[in-house]
């Protein structure tokens, strides 16, 4: 069964179903852990300070895991709602770019986003569990959880609002050729922010590390994410200037990019063509 095209292809419904099932199990387990932690473990008077601290850390971990699962689930659901022909398991499974054609950009759960993404998640887990074991009290500052939750919820909300407002104009990957149905979106959350989905994702990933009380990864995620957008946004905007030469300059002048200090970088915009095909 698993050798069939439905499970081997990233467009296969079997692979999509397995990913959805896996996310469901992952989130269910962490809902159960959260309920147990809140209703049983933290109510036990026999725990000493360290044991109690570790159970509180597990509560933080459960919220993070649920936020992570919800993020990936919403990426698929929003794509299914507005660009159903692009739905697949893997956002990186693409065809070749062909000039003067409508290139179909495939987007989905983003579970297989990149090696860098997997490494970042792994490092955040390593930091959390090391600190959980050795210094659990460090992770229990009173402001950490509400600030982290606020960033995560706000970032997720912005990203969902951006994807739903852009509808079929949204794509997970940069599109190098303008589709005939492609329109410049300037209403809703795009009225004042040119890249609200990037803003949402930026604050979501930073907030996720604040929620985990991971100081090293919080700083690292912030620097790496900003560097990524500092490179990507100017390059993407140069393409948009080509797509909408009469509309985009005025729109750009009256709006904020969403990520601070991402100025136009012409070296990035006109850089290596090989890099464009692997972005």
TrEMBL record:
GO cellular component: endoplasmic reticulum membrane
TM region(s), chain numbering: 12-36, 61-82, 94-111, 117-135, 201-229
Name of this chain's protein: Protein-S-isoprenylcysteine O-methyltransferase
Reaction catalysis annotation: [protein]-C-terminal S-[(2E,6E)-farnesyl]-L-cysteine + S-adenosyl-L-methionine = [protein]-C-terminal S-[(2E,6E)-farnesyl]-L-cysteine methyl ester + S-adenosyl-L-homocysteine
UniProt xrefs under InterPro entries: ICMT_MeTrfase, PPMT_MeTrfase
Chief subcellular location: endoplasmic reticulum
EC number(s) on file: 2.1.1.100
Organism: Peronospora effusa
């Amino acid at each position: 069964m698993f050798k069939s095209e439905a499970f081997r292809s990233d467009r296969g419904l079997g692979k999509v179903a397995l990913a959805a099932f896996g996310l469901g199990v992952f989130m269910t387990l962490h809902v159960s852990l959260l309920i147990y932690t809140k209703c049983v473990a933290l109510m036990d008077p026999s725990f000493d300070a360290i044991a109690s601290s570790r159970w509180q850390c597990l509560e933080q971990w459960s919220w993070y895991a649920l936020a992570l699962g919800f993020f990936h689930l919403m990426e698929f659901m929003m794509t299914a709602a507005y660009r159903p022909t692009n739905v697949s398991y893997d956002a990186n499974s693409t065809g070749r770019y062909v000039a003067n054609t409508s290139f179909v950009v495939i987007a989905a759960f983003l579970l297989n986003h990149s090696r860098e993404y997997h490494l970042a998640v792994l490092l955040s887990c390593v930091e959390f569990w090391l600190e959980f074991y050795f210094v659990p009290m460090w992770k229990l500052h009173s402001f950490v959880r509400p600030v982290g939750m606020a960033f995560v919820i706000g970032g997720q909300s912005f990203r969902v609002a951006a994807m739903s407002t852009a509808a079929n104009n949204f794509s997970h990957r940069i599109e190098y050729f303008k589709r005939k149905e492609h329109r410049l979106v300037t209403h809703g959350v795009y009225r004042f922010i040119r890249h609200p989905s990037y803003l949402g994702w930026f604050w979501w990933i930073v907030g996720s590390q604040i929620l985990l009380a991971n100081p090293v990864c919080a700083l690292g995620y912030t620097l790496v994410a900003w560097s990524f957008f500092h490179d990507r946004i100017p390059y993407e905007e140069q393409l948009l200037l080509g797509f909408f030469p009469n509309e985009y300059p005025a729109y750009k002048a009256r709006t904020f990019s969403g990520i601070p200090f991402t100025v136009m970088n012409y070296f990035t915009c006109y850089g290596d063509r090989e890099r464009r095909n692997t972005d």
